[in-house]
Design a protein that fits this description.
Layout lengths: L1 H21 L3 E14 L2 E14 L4 E12 L1 E3 L2 E18 L4 E16 L2 E17 L5 E12 L5 E12 L2
Antiparallel strand pairs: 1-2, 1-9, 2-3, 3-5, 4-5, 5-6, 6-7, 7-8, 8-9
Length: 170
């Protein structure tokens, strides 16, 4: 059921995007940053990147993200390493001022880890909240967020991401 909700949200954004593009309301953005992940007691780190499009008039967008592990952890006798993590999200933006906005996102993803040489992958329903602050001029800024990954076969995990964000066409 939770995957159906995420898929419906993403499908709805794709359905309204062509109409928004005709009105000139679509904007694009990208970000790169560091992600700290708590996964089954392991503290992992990753380089995270995302690209997205949004309709400023509607306050809605869609984004895809990917991450590659850079910091491993040892839990007991096992070495835990994030191999990759990726997902697709429907995003809602709530501007608080010209340079600051809150955001919420919901989506579907996949996490691939390696535990002592054995690679394991797991699908997840993801949701989170965050904020963005843009420097004077409005194209470049900083984004911070928390995301919950509700994994199918493992304990749920939490990730905190801090990234540089750039809005194109501003």
């Amino acid at each position: 059921m939770k995957y159906a909700i995420a898929a419906a949200a993403v499908a709805a954004l794709f359905a309204v995007s062509p109409a928004a593009a005709q009105d000139g309301g679509l904007n694009y953005y990208g970000s790169v940053g560091y992600q700290s992940i708590d996964l089954d007691g392991a503290s992992l780190g990753a380089v995270n990147g995302r690209v997205g499009m949004r309709n400023d008039g509607m306050g809605l967008g869609i984004e895809v993200e990917g991450a590659a592990g850079v910091d491993d952890d040892v839990v007991g006798l096992a070495n835990v390493e994030l191999k990759s993590q990726y997902g697709i999200y429907a995003v809602a933006f709530l501007p608080a001022s010209d340079s600051f906005e809150l955001l919420g996102r919901i989506g579907y993803g996949r996490t691939n880890i390696e535990v002592s040489g054995v690679e394991v992958g797991d699908d997840s329903f993801n949701w989170g909240v965050g904020a963005q602050w843009f420097f004077k001029g409005g194209s470049n800024g900083l984004r911070g967020e928390w995301t919950r990954y509700e994994l199918d076969g493992a304990d749920d995990s939490d990730a905190f991401t801090f990234s540089f964000v750039h809005r194109f066409g501003r």
